[in-house]
From TrEMBL:
CDD domains: Radical_SAM. InterPro entries: Coproporphyrinogen-III_oxidase, Elp3/MiaA/NifB-like_rSAM, HemW-like, rSAM, rSAM_sf. It holds the Pfam family Radical_SAM. It comes from the Bacteria. Coiled coil: none annotated. GO terms for molecular function: 4 iron, 4 sulfur cluster binding; coproporphyrinogen oxidase activity; metal ion binding. The keyword Iron applies. Probably acts as a heme chaperone, transferring heme to an unknown acceptor. Binds one molecule of heme per monomer, possibly covalently. Binds 1 [4Fe-4S] cluster. The cluster is coordinated with 3 cysteines and an exchangeable S-adenosyl-L-methionine. GO terms for cellular component: cytoplasm. This is Heme chaperone HemW.
Length: 382
């Protein structure tokens, strides 16, 4: 693709995809690059090239300061202390950060040492999302995770010791029944670490993953719908009782500790995506980069924008997206005239509440998010 430098976008949120992982987790179908030795310099050089190809010379003038900067993956913590600092420096050379910007990196517990935590803090990281996934040793092994249970606690201590106080944990629920995972015990273990935020993801079986192959062979069965719903609702109750707001279908935060970066996606505002497989949105056009790390590097070495595709969102796309995004958070959705009758049965079932014209799904409603969003979208498209 020819080199094109579009006008600067007013996005106040930047996502950087760092694709490296030590190995592939059994359930993961993300765009990753498995590397024993991470090519830190090559990656940061390519990141700088992408910034230059897409946004011209490094400069701060004329750009809104960033409200959030997020290094996701893959496993950004595999860049190490100096690598994370170099990646953040690269972005800052093009996009100034607001003084109170939220700067997050995703980390695997086994990458977090006291030295790395201090280096990340010095580089400006003020929030870390730790991929803990479970506190059951056998479940971690089954997931092909590279860390053990104890390393999560040590990582939390190292991060807090370095002064990074805003910590999020990830947990995966609805794992196969045969694993005999004690979900309540895992939730209690997570709460005992006093995180500020928790993200919960229901296990899905994706083709092409080790889990997908086990499923094809019939050696693993997914959790049934009742178990999925039961664990989701138990998490809602447990986290609520512990003082967390269940503010998005998969996310819980202590008051004032919602993910500002992810909230920008749910508000549908522009953001820049950098790195292999990264998506971006300028308010009208959605674009995505070459997914394979080697292809992303190759495009940049030849001076090309690594874009793999883009689409102009049509009014119907925007309408469907606004319904879906509104319903997935506690911000809810403002109903249009004539829609109240359509959602009255949802309220009767306990799936939603109505506050004036603002409709919000309950936890039971979030279990039906796709179907309810589709129902309202069909109504709005008529
Ligand atoms: S660490 Fe994360 S991105 Fe990497 S393989 Fe595991 S789940 Fe996927």
């Amino acid at each position: 693709m020819a080199l094109v430098v579009p006008p600067r976008v007013p996005a106040r949120h930047v996502y950087v995809h760092v694709p490296f992982c030590a190995r592939r987790c059994s359930y993961c179908d993300f765009a990753i690059a498995v590397r024993r030795v991470v090519p830190v310099n090559e990656y940061v050089d390519a990141l700088r090239k992408e910034l230059a190809v897409r946004f011209g010379e490094p400069a701060h003038a004329g750009l809104e300061p960033l409200d959030t900067l997020y290094l996701g993956g893959g496993t950004p913590s595999r860049l190490g202390g100096a690598g994370v600092a170099a990646a953040l420096d690269a972005v800052r050379d093009w996009f100034p950060l607001a003084p109170d910007a939220e700067v997050t990196i995703e980390a695997n517990p086994d990458d977090v040492s006291a030295d790395a935590a201090r280096a990340w803090r010095d580089a400006g990281v003020n929030r870390v999302s730790l991929g803990s996934q479970s506190f059951d040793r056998d479940v971690l092994r089954w997931m092909h995770r590279t860390h053990d249970v104890e390393q999560v606690g040590r990582a939390v201590d190292a991060l807090r010791g370095a002064g990074i106080g805003n910590l999020s944990l990830d947990l995966i629920f609805a794992v196969p029944t045969a694993l005999e995972r004690d979900w309540d015990r895992d939730l209690a273990h997570a709460l005992a670490l006093a995180p500020d935020h928790l993200s919960l993801y229901g296990l899905t079986i994706e083709p092409g993953t080790p889990l997908g192959r086990w499923h094809e062979r019939g050696t693993v069965a997914e959790a049934d719908e009742d178990r999925y719903a039961d664990e989701f609702l138990r998490a809602h109750e447990t986290m609520g009782a512990a003082g967390f707001e269940h503010y998005e279908v998969s996310n819980f935060g202590r008051p004032g500790r919602r993910s500002r970066h992810n909230s920008s996606y749910w508000r549908g505002v522009p953001y820049v995506g950098l790195g292999p497989a990264a998506h971006g949105f300028d308010g009208g056009v959605r674009r995505w980069n070459a997914a394979a790390y080697a292809e992303w590097v190759r495009q940049l070495e030849t001076g090309c924008d690594p874009v793999a595709g883009q689409e102009q969102l049509q009014p119907a796309d925007r309408a469907a997206e606004s319904v879906y995004l509104g319903l997935r958070t506690t911000d809810g959705l403002v109903l249009e005239p004539g829609e109240a009758a359509r959602v009255a049965p949802w309220i009767d079932q306990g799936w939603a509440t109505l506050d004036g014209a603002r409709l919000r799904l309950t936890a039971a409603g979030w279990l039906r998010l796709d179907a309810l969003a589709a129902d309202l979208t069909v109504l709005r498209s008529r």
